[in-house]
């Protein structure tokens, strides 16, 4: 994280669920002396314990969890507080009114959402406008060169409503780095332990996309990952959420900011894409 700050990174995303809260603790400890220079985002919704009040988007759970997140983050405010997924058991009106109270208190600066159906997000924005309360300003959705189904409804909706895009898995869990090759069984720990990754990003047509990105990367003298990130940035994304595990991965990602892609290069990168089943809403 120190290297990230040195490189000019100022947006840090986490969640109350990650590593049972340890992720928030680390973010809080490392950023406490930089608090006014960074944007801290976290999330609420998923299960953090046993019992009916340990998950969801009820008023009780939101207010209880925001207190816990503030404590772990060692801060008096959360800049962007996001709902991690839709809660079918709680009326969205209850959720938004609770979040609005946090904004009015100054505990939360802005509210955002993560993967859901476009109709759910549209309903949320309508409810906020109807009550005259805080509305979602960001959408953290599943979007990358290998998964573009969000272009059908969610991304046009966000563009129309002035909602910022901060997609997760911009490199398809590392698939878009080019490290995985067609016809070869991956040996990485992620492939062996991450069922979501192993089942959903190894179709022949997914390799077509990666291999096209590799071609463009070779022509431009950059990495495949940088091309994948540059493509996202050229699609109007505000800030891809990357999960770098090594300093060199972080440095490589930041380098994507300097890459310009022509209209022809964008078309070439997009041409191999084939329809995907919906991933990431649950």
Give a written overview of the molecule.
- By secondary structure, the chain is α/β, with parallel strands linked by helices.
- The protein has a domain at 1-140: Alpha-Beta Barrel (TIM Barrel).
- It has twelve helices and six strands.
- A six-stranded parallel β-sheet has the order 1-2-3-4-5-6, covered by helices on one side.
- The model has no long low-confidence stretch (mean pLDDT 95).
Distinctive features:
6 strands; alpha/beta; 43% helix; 282 residues; six-stranded parallel beta sheet; TIM Barrel
Sequence-ordered SSE layout with sheet pairings:
Blueprint: H1 2-6, E1 11-13, H2 22-31, E2 39-44, H3 59-73, E3 78-83, H4 92-105, E4 108-114, H5 118-131, E5 136-140, H6 154-161, E6 164-165, H7 189-193, H8 195-200, H9 204-220, H10 224-233, H11 247-255, H12 263-270
Helix pairs in contact: 2-3, 4-5, 9-10, 9-12
Q: What's the CATH class of the domain at 1-140, please?
A: Alpha Beta
Strand content: 5-15%
* Neighbour order of strands in the largest sheet: 1-2-3-4-5-6
Largest sheet features? 6 strands, parallel
Radius of gyration: 19 Å
Stated plainly, the CATH topology of the domain at 1-140 is called: TIM Barrel
Structural class comes to alpha/beta
Mean model confidence by pLDDT: 95
CATH superfamily of the domain at 1-140: NADP-dependent oxidoreductase domain
Order of helices and strands: HEHEHEHEHEHEHHHHHH
Percent of residues in helices: 40-55%
If helices are DSSP runs of H or I spanning 4 or more residues, what is the number of helices? 12
Task: Tell me the total number of β-strands.
Answer: 6
Question: What CATH architecture of the domain at 1-140 would you give?
Answer: Alpha-Beta Barrel
Characterize the quaternary organization of these chains.
single chain
What sort of overall outline do the alpha carbons produce when their principal axes are compared? globular
In angstroms, what separates the terminal alpha carbons?
A: 29 Å
């Amino acid at each position: 994280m120190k290297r990230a700050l040195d490189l000019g990174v100022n947006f840090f995303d986490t969640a109350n669920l990650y590593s049972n809260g340890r992720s928030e603790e680390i973010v809080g400890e490392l950023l406490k002396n930089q608090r006014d220079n960074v944007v801290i985002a976290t999330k609420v919704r998923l299960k953090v314990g046993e019992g009916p009040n340990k998950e969801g988007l009820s008023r009780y759970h939101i207010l209880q969890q925001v207190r816990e997140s503030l404590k772990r983050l060692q801060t008096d405010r959360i800049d962007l507080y996001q709902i991690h997924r839709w809660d079918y058991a709680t009326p969205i009106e209850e959720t938004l009114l609770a979040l609005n109270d946090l904004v009015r208190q100054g505990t939360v600066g802005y509210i955002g959402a993560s993967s859901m159906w476009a109709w759910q997000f549209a309903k949320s924005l309508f409810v906020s406008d109807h009550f005259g309360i805080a509305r979602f300003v960001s959408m953290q959705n599943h979007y990358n060169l290998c998964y573009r189904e969000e272009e059908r409804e969610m991304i046009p909706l966000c563009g129309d409503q002035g909602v910022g895009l901060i997609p997760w898995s911009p490199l398809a869990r590392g698939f878009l780095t080019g490290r995985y090759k067609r016809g070869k069984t991956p040996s990485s720990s992620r492939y062996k332990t991450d069922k979501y990754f192993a089942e959903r990003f190894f179709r022949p047509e997914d390799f077509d996309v990666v291999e096209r990105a590799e071609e463009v990367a070779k022509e431009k003298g950059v990495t495949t990952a940088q091309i994948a990130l540059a493509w996202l940035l050229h699609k109007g994304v505000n800030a891809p959420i990357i999960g770098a595990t090594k300093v060199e991965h972080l440095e490589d990602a930041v380098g994507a900011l300097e890459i310009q892609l022509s209209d022809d290069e964008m078309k070439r990168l997009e041409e191999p894409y084939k329809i995907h089943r919906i991933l990431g809403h649950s």
